[in-house]
């Protein structure tokens, strides 16, 4: 997607995938200071830890306390979070007014934090593998807790902010989907994740990770280059 954007904008730039382990994150972040590097995206599981290797953060990264986009400003690393605006767009896509809404967010990592910022004014409950270690603003329940599926059933919105659904089955039973609410899955899989497909079959408003990916990618492109993002070539590349 980013390579297509660079080509459409006439930039002789490239975008490379780096598979970084947690122990290799610090060294990888230091390579972003090199003169020929404009910046990078940061994804699971590094969105929170990456903050500790930056010189500055701005905007939604400060509010979410998580980073998904880094820019090299003459050797200084500045972090921002384009997930927040992209998730805000997905919330608008499903027609939800966050003010006073009841929201269940699966996960408590960087993507979940971005979702909570995007849903300012909503009542958010997080479902985490390690509730005691979840540093989020809102109620936190454990995965085995039988209360959260009941909360989902009555909620206005369910957001999956975990990797579950990409290589595994959907993280929630179909009978526990919102009765009258909406579903947003931040995982992107061709044809939709099992969670999104089931929600659609029930007639629930949905947004999937593809629209979020496009939006956050376009915002990152604009921050790195200072140019308007060529969204159509980016969208076509995603398929």
Give a quick rundown of the structure.
By secondary structure, this protein is an alpha/beta fold. 34% of the residues lie in helices and 17% in strands.
Distance between the termini: 10 Å
The residue ranges in which pLDDT falls below 50 over 5 or more consecutive positions are: none
Number of helical stretches of at least 4 residues: 9
Q: How much helix, percentage-wise, in residues? A: 25-40%
Radius of gyration: 18 Å
* Overall morphology: globular
Instruction: Summarize the biggest pleated sheet.
Output: 6 strands, parallel
Alpha-beta classification:
alpha/beta
Model description:
The protein has two domains: 2-82 and 212-238, Rossmann fold (3-Layer(aba) Sandwich); 84-208, NAD(P)-binding Rossmann-like Domain (Rossmann fold, 3-Layer(aba) Sandwich), CATH 3.40.50. The model has no long low-confidence stretch (mean pLDDT 91). Strand 3 (69-73) and strand 4 (76-80) form a beta hairpin. The chain is built from nine helices and ten strands. The strands form two sheets. It has a six-stranded parallel beta sheet, sandwiched between helices. A four-stranded mixed beta sheet has the order 1-3-4-2. Helix 1 (2-8) packs antiparallel against helix 9, helix 4 (82-93) packs across helix 5 and helix 4 packs antiparallel against helix 8 (209-225). It has helices at 2-8, 25-31, 59-64, 82-93, 110-118, 147-154, 194-201, 209-225, 231-238; strands spanning 39-41, 56-57, 69-73, 76-80, 102-106, 123-128, 139-142, 157-160, 182-185, 206-207. With 239 residues, the protein is α/β, with parallel strands linked by helices. Helices cover 34% and strands 17% of the residues. The radius of gyration is 18 Å and the shape is globular.
